[in-house]
Specification:
The complex is a heterodimer of chains A (105) and B (641). By secondary structure, chain A is an all-alpha fold. Chain A has 3 helices and no strands. Chain B is built from 26 helices and 4 strands. In chain B, β3 and β4 form a beta hairpin.
Chain lengths: 105, 641
């Protein structure tokens, strides 16, 4: 079929991105960085969609469109998330995620 | 029989009710005097409507061969529980309820007018009038009830308004205690009443008075059914119903609340605890009289003996009390005992029904003269600021109108002709004579005692040594003395109302005449009582003290009201509280509460342990989520391969 980069290269890349994202989400303290980690996770999924579509069903487009939707949603989500982060900053004078724990109990 | 043209009777009830709401909600916005005047004016309308009702009922309606029959002026289903079991609200007019309408509205109107002067300057003036209206409404609703359940509802309303008015001076601990006592004792009695109602209506299948009291109805014809301890179920239910009546009417042994109820303002005592509410028990027995007389003779005997005993018992206590309102309270008990006894010795229909008619007659005259006595006592208290007769004396110079009206009332209650008390008491004595000689003798004795203690009261207040007063006592204002004069006139003339034609057990006319063989000795006994009181109390003397030391035991027992209160306290505090309430309270506190507290403790403990799960730390949640997802993946991989 295709000559060039084999499928599993892409999968390894997306897996790496996914777990880098998870790692960043769990370990970073800065909310912006956490947001960036989420983008990494989403993009790793996008890669999966596109790659599977391209390699397994080359005559169809669902995977491409799905990743389009994910990108659109991610943009919206980023806008909302940044708005939330700004508000958190106004209230707490900080964007450290550990300080934002007022909603417990 | 539904007769049109009596729909306006609804307004007799509605006006006091609206007054209650109006004065209660917005009375404080006006000057106090306004609420008094508005209340009295409203009652005047009710009074006029009652008079119209009575006139139309007794004198213009066509009554056939069977005398005065009951009229349902209106009736509506209030609560439909099942097709057969429903609670109605309505207005029933028959001779006794029409008579009671007159009694209640007359006395209530007089008390309203009197209170305008008496309560002047008191805190809570409009509250007082609003409660008076509530009471009037409930009492009117009670007497016109078409069914026993409506009566019960208004019965409790009357109890509540009595409670509110006894405790009117709620800053006085004794008034609060008295109101609680009145409420609890009558409530306890009402328990019997309620059980009686349930048993009665279960056996007869109806709440309706017309069906219940129909001589050919199910109540009378089913009377021979099941028995319990030798008495039929109907009889037991009637005894239980009478228990409620005895509580409200302060019959022995449920009388202990009435003397304490005198803590309320004096006009309240006149209205509630002399003229209207306390005769509700008599009215109840009278209302159910056909069943009592035809199906429950043992219950009727209970009524008679309880009434007879109470009348003697209370009269003896009244002879030694010093608080003038308490003397009148015991006198009220004694007179209500008379009425109960008259009902108890009566039969149904024809000449047998003499006692019934006499009882209603006495209820009517008693309402007038006892309200008068209380209002006079109020005028005296108003003048000297004391309830105790040993702080009074020689007041006849200062209070001429009160003096004369009080004397009229004393003569009336003593049964001296031609005052009304003579006629009604004579009928009662005649009825007792024909049925039960023992009770008859008791009543003769009570007649003498009544004359004695009333004139003891009279002389102690108006004659004898003039006590030292802080300021010269003055006669009450006209707004107070006019009701006195009106009621005095009523006491004199109501004796000439031909009750035997109007209010009888079966609605038929009844031929009566004064039996001189009974009347003359009773007047002589009363005169003897007055004479003894004159000798002992007219002038200051040591005779009363010497009498007291001669009959020391009787005097002490009587002075301490035969220690009935102490017996109650002993039974409740020492026995019920200690051996029942304390263990129950312990059980409640330790077992019931303990279980609940234990559950609460377990939940609190658990939540303390697990509340760390919700730390608010986003990354903690995330790690739990991720590890959960990983775990699930591992599980699925393991299961699938």
């Amino acid at each position: 079929m295709h000559q060039g980069i084999p499928l599993h290269y892409f999968l390894i890349l997306s897996t790496l991105m996914f777990f880098i994202g998870i790692f960043g989400f769990l370990t970073r303290r800065n909310l912006i960085t956490i947001l960036m980690s989420i983008e990494l996770i989403l993009n790793s999924v996008n890669i999966n969609f596109v790659v599977f579509n391209r390699y397994l069903f080359p005559h169809e487009l669902q995977g491409h469109f799905f990743s389009m939707i994910v990108i659109a949603i991610a943009a919206a989500e980023a806008a909302i998330a940044i708005a939330i982060i700004i508000n958190i900053y106004r209230n707490f004078r900080s964007i450290e995620v550990e300080k934002v724990d007022e909603m417990k109990h | 029989m539904e007769i049109h043209g009596y729909a306006f009777t609804l307004y007799i009830l509605l006006i006091p009710f609206l007054l209650f709401i109006f004065l209660g909600l917005s009375g404080h916005r006006f000057k106090p005097l306004i609420s008094g005047i508005v209340g009295s004016a409203g009652l005047l309308v009710s009074f006029a409507l009652s008079l119209i009702t009575a006139y139309r009922y007794f004198f213009t309606s066509l009554h056939g061969e069977d005398g005065y029959s009951a009229i349902i002026a209106m009736n509506s289903v209030w609560l439909r529980l099942t097709e057969k079991l429903h609670i109605d609200m309505g207005i029933l007019l028959d001779p006794i309820s029409v008579m009671m309408l007159i009694v209640i509205t007359t006395v209530s109107l007089m008390v309203h007018i009197y209170s305008i002067g008496y309560m002047k300057g008191e805190r809570g003036y409009e509250r007082f009038f609003s409660f008076l209206s509530l009471f009037t409404f409930s009492m009117l609703g009670l007497v016109v009830a078409t069914n026993i359940f409506q009566m019960y509802i208004f019965w409790e309303l009357v109890g509540v308004s009595s409670y509110l008015l006894i405790g009117f001076y709620y800053q006085k601990p004794s008034a609060v205690a008295a109101s609680k006592k009145a409420f609890i004792v009558t409530r306890f009695a009402d328990l019997g009443f309620l059980i009686g109602i349930l048993v009665l209506s279960y056996t007869t299948g109806t709440f309706d008075f017309k069906t219940l009291t129909d001589p050919a109805g199910p109540a009378v014809t089913h009377a021979g059914g099941a028995t319990f301890l030798g008495l039929s179920i109907i009889t037991w239910s009637l005894i239980l119903v009478f228990m409620g009546g005895a509580g409200k009417s302060a019959m022995f042994p449920l009388h202990i609340w009435l003397p304490d109820a005198m803590e309320g303002p004096t006009p309240v005592s006149a209205l509630i605890h002399a003229a209207t509410m306390v005769v509700a028990g008599v009215y109840l027995v009278a209302r159910l009289f056909p069943i009592y007389a035809l199906a429950g003779i043992p219950a009727l005997n209970v009524v008679a003996y309880v009434g007879g005993f109470t009348s003697l018992f209370a009269a003896v206590i009244a002879c030694t009390q010093l608080d003038i309102k308490r003397v009148l309270a015991y006198s009220t008990m004694s007179q209500i005992g008379y009425m109960m006894l008259a009902l108890g010795v009566s039969g149904y229909g024809g000449h047998e029904g003499l006692g019934f008619m006499a009882s209603m007659f006495h209820l009517f005259t008693h309402a007038m003269f006892k309200a008068l006595l209380f209002l006079c006592a109020g005028a005296v208290i108003h003048a000297v600021h004391s309830n105790y007769m040993n702080e009074m004396g020689g007041l006849r110079k200062f209070l001429p109108i009160t003096h004369i009206t009080f004397l009229i009332a004393c003569l009336t209650i003593a049964g001296i002709p031609p005052f009304s008390g003579f006629f009604s008491k004579d009928e009662i004595l005649a009825a007792a004579w024909h049925h039960n000689k023992v009770l008859f003798v008791v009543e003769y004795l009570v007649a003498g005692l009544t004359a004695f203690y009333m004139f003891r009261l009279y002389y102690s207040i108006f004659h004898g040594r003039q006590a030292h007063y802080h300021h010269t006592p003055h006669e009450a204002p006209y707004v107070m003395t006019i009701p006195l004069m009106f009621l005095a006139a009523a006491s004199i003339f109501t004796g000439f109302i031909p009750f035997h034609n109007l209010v009888t057990s079966d609605g038929m006319h009844l031929e009566t005449h004064i039996e001189w063989g009974i009347a003359i000795p009773s007047v002589l006994i009363a005169a003897a009582g007055i004479a003894v009181a004159t000798v002992m109390y007219r002038k200051e003397s040591t005779l009363p003290a010497r009498m007291a030391s001669t009959f020391r035991h009787l005097y002490t027992w009587s002075f301490h009201k035969f220690y009935i209160d102490e017996v109650y306290l002993f039974v409740t505090k020492k026995i019920i509280f200690r051996y029942i309430s304390t263990p129950v309270a312990w059980f409640d506190r330790h077992v019931v509460d303990g279980t609940m507290n234990g559950i609460a403790w377990v939940i609190e403990f658990t939540s303390h342990r697990i509340k760390g799960f919700q730390s608010g730390q986003l990354q903690q949640y995330a790690i739990v989520f991720v590890s959960g997802a990983v775990l699930l993946i591992l599980v699925f991989i393991y299961l699938l391969y």
